[in-house]
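re: that chain from earlier
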Amino acid sequence: MTRLPDYYAARDAEAGDAAGGPVLSVEFWPPKTEQGELNLFGEIERLRKLNPAFCSMTYGAGGSTRDKTVDLVCRIERDFGLDMMCHLTVVGQSRAEVRGVLDRLRANNVHNIIALGGDPPPGTEWAAHADGFSYAQELVIEARSGDDWFSVAVAGFPEVHPRATSRESDLRYLKAKVDAGASVVITQLFFDNADYYRFVEDARRIGIQVPIVPGMLPIRSSAQARRFTAMCGARIPARLDALLDTVGDDDAAAVRLGIDYATEQCEQLLRFGIPGFHFYSLNRADALLEIHRGLGL
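^ sequence. v structure.
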């Protein structure tokens, strides 16, 4: 098991490593059915050929999949030999439940987490648990307290967190999470690289020096892309918006568009000197395999 900072230690956070290439990581979500799990395991087998440095598993809205998430993290770590990073959220969990998750991860030799505010259940407003933490920063402190077992990633928002009062306050909060012990920032999805470049520049300006890893989403349908961006406060640039209009409800054409657009984004990001890519896979290997080939990694 490798801790998060070690994946990026061989490369400068701004310059990358031309010889070894960027660190590749992949995110999955917990399937709702047994067949969905079998499908996921099949996709993981396909993705193993890319030799990802680590993989992550999300929580459902409101922490609804907490037990399933932890079960899958531990199972994939054990059965597939992949280093796993477990999502850990503020919303929907008491302090005791957070500590219980950390204890289970430790017992199963999982060292990496990403500390997040989390999404509320559909149709509800975000609210911390009455007996829980209020901010992701507190999760970082909790995970990092006592010893050096856990390494912690946190989320960054190139286009500003939807609940932030301003860009500057959002950046200050990000710095507080890093100062609390987070060793990597993984960004929310974005479709305009200029937003990422500005975000990195602003973060460095206020003293955030840890790796800032772009979160990449290969589009699979026009409706999905519009829904995801609306949910997370990201935007669809005019050029991409026009391209989505051309594919309409043709999901096969949308997948092709997603591969081509993400490959173009990644090529530009590589020239910028990113430390790695974190792909939101949607539990599918096909797009990532083709993007990886297209980039010649």
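The longest helix spans residues 251-272.
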